[in-house]
Amino acid sequence: MKISIAKTSGFCFGVNRAVKIVYDLILSGKKVCTLGPIIHNPTVIENFKNMGVSIVEKPSLIPDDTILIIRSHGITRSTLEYISLKGVKYIDTTCPFVKKIHNIVIKYSNKKSLLLAAGNKNHPEMIGIRSYFEGTSYVFKNLNELKEILKKISNRNYDDVILISQTTFSVEEWKKCAFFLKNMFTNIKVFDTICNTTHSRQKEAEFLSKKSDLMIVVGGKQSSNTRKLYEICSTHTKTVWIESVDELVDSIFYGCETVSIVAGASTPTDLVDEVYNYIKNR
User: Which of 13, 129, 194, 236 has the most Cβ atoms closer than 10 angstroms to its Cβ?
Assistant: First the structure.
């Protein structure tokens, strides 16, 4: 059996930066808490919990004498204003690519503008992005959802129409939606805010899935970018999505001569190595 690991597997820049900051604080003896999970990977979160890192869901629950870590997905404007007003000690590990989107929507934010955002409206990154925009905003997952939204707003006039995407959105779906909107609005401003790492991972996942009998996608089930990898791979070949090596069963390898492993941007390299070694030694 031939086993391949995607070259783009492992932490992306933003996740690696956030995780390293937390580890450095812990090793220096600091008390640390995060507002929600710092990244979407259960193994990393459990490891941090065992090291004393607490997770709070509301800023009002932040313990005293604790450094708050703002997660890589970013937070809402109101939450940032609250912790600043309360004098909470915090370190902002929001991914620079997410910060870039915040700055874009702030620049064009007014009550007569329209923001069209490609992504998941319930994802913390998207919730944060929309909070910085004062005008009307809509979120869509695909071209069909976008068309339904446009039916509602076809007769309205906006000073500016802004198009952005979640950093982990599907590259192919983005191209279709952007092309469609450019033909709908003469005043639309299009910002391709899918991060470079996402683009590379999706491209490599497609390439490997077209020449593999089985694809194994490693990553948290809450991870948006990992879900996109699974969707891409399962289009071309048999694909399983696991969070850890414990979920693998021998039966999925029957009849497979080529197996490839891809991993989300919040998946540690050691988890990918465990999967590789399991297959190699089975």
Answer: 129
